[in-house]
Amino acid sequence: MKLNEMTILGLRKLLDKREVTVREVVDDVYGRIDSVEDRVKAFITITREEAYKNTERAQEAIDSGRASLLTGIPIAIKDNMCTKGILTTCASQILHNFVPPYESTVTGKLRGQDCVLVGKTNLDEFAMGSSTENSSFHTTRNPWNLDCVPGGSSGGSVAAVAAGECIAAVGSDTGGSIRQPASLCGIVGLKPTYGRVSRYGLVAFASSLDQIGPITKDVADAAAMMNVIAGHDPLDSTSAPVASPDFMAALGRDIKGLRIGIPREYFIEGMDQDVEKSVRDAIKKLEDLGARAVEVSLPHTQYAIATYYILATSEASSNLARYDGVKYGLREPAKDLIDMYMNTRAKGFGAEVKRRIMLGTYALSSGYYDAYYKKGQQVRTLIKNDFDSAFRDVDVIVTPTAPTGAFRIGEKATDPLQMYLSDIFTISVNLAGVPGISVPCGFTREGLPVGLQIIGKHFGEETILQAAHAFEQSTEWHLRRPSL
Amino acid sequence: MKLSNDEVIHISRLSRLALSGDDTGLYATQLSSIIEYVELLNNLDTTSIEPTSHIIPLDNVMVEDIPGKSLPREDALRNAPDSNGRFYRVPKIIE
To answer: Tens digits of per-residue pLDDT, A55-89?
Structure first.
């Protein structure tokens, strides 16, 4: 097995026992990038020079017994997290030349352990999309079928991990942007509880929904990564002042007696047969392992997408007001200030971003606030109450992560609403602020991966990791790799 | 509700986004279909429901008012499209 195909914890052992060097690991990663990246197109910026520079420091740390969990491990970072001194574009022309003067908390934690930063990965512009087709640079491809999308918006991070172009990655998830691509590319993606991980330095899309999380080859790596990135941060006033547990302690515990809720609203007529079969088989497997499946109801599920597209676009219209051609990024000259704003933003933003800014502006505009924004916040309460009440009876909730396998590039690009519907199973989780993980649970007849979503209570990451790990260890889906 | 071209132009001005003539009609169609879809929420009676703006119970977060380290001016200005070395420079605002 090539070193780039390994997991964080697998490499950790080899590095600490000095059976391999950081240099050898990094060589294999960039060797892989050289052979597949022109087809996968996972990255916006490849930081090879910086990576090799860090190789020595990481090796020194290991040699002197100061290694941390991620020391010497090649990690990719979604290009919406600020990395000091390294281009951070959000896949937008409006930030095409932005080099942050400060470091996000999460990337600071990763780089502080002397991980090897492989590069900054592609995304839908400002994380707005479900296919990575909305990047203003290029479309990332699904390593399982290069004619298909990897999902989005963290499509670059996910494709890089699935293709073996890095060992693990971080992404952000506002409505499914970690879990849905992880499902479509056959790997593991975790969206933590809102507030569990600092958002400081994550370029804001919808501040009440955004959350950073790990994208890994297996569940143990996701737990390991959580141990590094979770925790309260005084620089993010919305980060939760709660202690972080040892997430890895959840691994290996059996799930006898665990109550798993199956929401009836998620198994609807017309859903993709291959997805349904894989997920039903997965539930059977969890029952074989001792879990008890119980039907639950999340009655406001059908309102989740509408609620999300009011709240997320309203927050986005406000957050993206900062791109005005004054402090950073693109400026389009004009005779006066207002025209400079209007031309800069017209040229710098892509179609989907403009659509969402306008939708959010409309929802917040005078006379419509109560009908849209306030209404959305009220329905958000109902959706949150659905989860609260379901979690009185069960420990976790299990659903498909995405309604279908990966779709073809271009298939949904012209119909925004159709694209929004691909997040139907992930969006409620962000609205309720609870954690969710996607683990591989099968393949469609076309050979495309299917993901199982396991949802937990607020700050219940340990329980979903426990369930996901038990499932994964009794199956072999996570060991399959695309042939590229 | 269907948005007219004039309404789209109004929203684009509020959004500080210049639109070309062709875009206006396309956005009117696309935004209208999304707005029609979100009006699904009108099926729900939410009269007595409290709105949720923040999902985790969290009180106001206060910090001591102590000056900390701030970004050096040259770092803050480095990304500016135009500056005079001390300030951001923008087109004339007042005639």
So the answer is: 999 999 999 999 999 999 999 999 999 999 999 99
Phi and psi at residue A222, to the nearest 5°: -65, -40
pTM greater than 0.90 (yes/no): yes
Residue A153: active-site member: yes
Q: Please answer yes or no on whether A354 and B17 come within 8 Å at the CB atom.
A: yes
Of residues A75, A98, A304, the one with CA closest to residue A168: A75
Show the domain range for A463: 3-259+393-479
Domain membership of residue A243 (yes or no) is: yes
Q: What is the CATH number assigned to the segment(s) B5-41?
A: 1.10.20
Nearest chain B CA: its distance from A192 CA (Å):
13
User: Within 10 A of A2 (CB to CB), how many other CB atoms are there?
Assistant: 11
- The sheet carrying A396-400 orders its strands as A43-46, A116-121, A74-78, A168-172, A212-216, A188-191, A436-443, A449-455, A396-400, A259-263, A292-296
DSSP B79: T
In a domain? residue A232: yes
Question: CB-based contacts of A297: which residues, under 8 Å, 6+ apart?
Answer: A263, A264, A265, A386, A390
ipTM: 0.95
Q: Do A302 and B44 touch (CB under 8 A)?
A: no
**Residues of A with CB below 8 A from B5's CB?**
none
Domain assignment present for A312: no
Is residue B58 within 8 angstroms of chain A, CB to CB? Answer: yes
CATH number at residue A244: 3.90.1300.10
Would strands A212-216 and A292-296 be described as parallel, antiparallel, or unpaired?
unpaired
**Domain range annotation of chain B:** 5-41
